Amino acid sequence: MVTNKKQHLFLKPYPVTGIKNQLFIGAVIGLFISFILIVFQPFGTYNFKIKNKFLFLFGYGIICTAVYSAYYSLLMILFKKWFLPQKWTVLKEIVTLIPILLIIPIVSLYYYNLVLENYTIEINHFLSFFLVSFAIGIVPFSAIYYYKWLKNKLTKIQFSNGQTDYTITINSNNKKEEPIHIKSEELIYIKSSSNYIEVFTKNNATSRLIRNSLNYVEGKLPEHDFLKIHRSYIVNIKAIDSLKISNSTYFIKVKNNDIYLPVSRSVIKTVKKIIK
Question: Where does a domain end: 111, 127, 155?
């Protein structure tokens, strides 16, 4: 019985983090580690007697950011099928995370050896750096996965039988408010409205307002189906008809509707590729 429960837990759907968000996470982890090492100087770093000590300690943060960002970027570019949202589970998240937890301490150890001492690296040195990396990294990683857990709680995606269409459930921050259940093909766009979001669908003449954050929803929706075109809008890529410009402002026209949504200049190239 215990085995079945574990399998059930590991096979549960889990939100995939896109490349852009992984790069952001890598930067946050690196800055946090640099801050801890420079300000508190734990694990004997206080006793280091070297020139440019703070710069040396800051280097650990750079290593974490560079290794984490490069690792996830390469994986997500080379193995796109592995990261399909409809097949992403808790088990895949863990399996993908484990190598980076080993790579970062190894690179950090060689960095330490290169700058401070030139000695023969032994197995116990790897174990020591792994424990130190774990002790420092547990806080930012815990915060990241708590954030992902919140996203998963507020916005859920349910795939069925490997179909491209899937059900999106958007929960409210207000427990008394009913969640929104909608098929991905029916969702046209989502608009941010203060502490609420408005969900617009194909068949509904009016939108549905619910207390939630556009950022939470953006992080949950599959990047290959939905695009944040503006700080206040997420649109279904399949609903984009054309790109217009009026008074130096860009808009996308929604298919089969006389609806125009503003587009930030930073995503214009992406929109043009979609239209082509």
Answer: 155
CA–CA gap between residue 70 and residue 208 (Å, rounded):
40
Question: Whose CA is closest to 107, among 144, 73, 68?
Answer: 68
Q: Could you say which residues of the chain have pLDDT below 70?
A: 1-8, 86, 118-119, 150-164, 204-206
CA distance 32 to 140: 7
Per DSSP bridges, beta strands 249-254 and 240-246 are: antiparallel
Compute CA distances 216 → 9, 71, 156, 180, 232, whole Å.
23, 24, 11, 15, 13
- Please give the residue range of the domain that contains residue 128: 2-155
Tell which residue, 87, 220, 61, has the closest CA to residue 140.
Answer: 61
d(CA 125, CA 131): 10
Q: What single string gives the DSSP state of each residue in 79-107?
A: -GGGG-GGG-BHHHHHHHHHHHHHHHHHH
CA atoms within 13 A on the CB side of 263: 26
Q: How far apart are CA 195 and CA 216, in angstroms?
A: 12
Q: What is the CATH number of the domain that holds 252?
A: 2.40.50.1020
Structure tokens at 172: 């409210």
Distances (CA, A) of 138 to 101, 194, 243: 11, 33, 45
**Last residue in a domain, options 131, 155, 179:** 155
Which residues have a Cβ under 8 Å from the Cβ of 209 and sit 6 or more positions away?
Answer: 193, 196, 197, 198, 199
Q: What is the pLDDT of residue 174?
A: 85
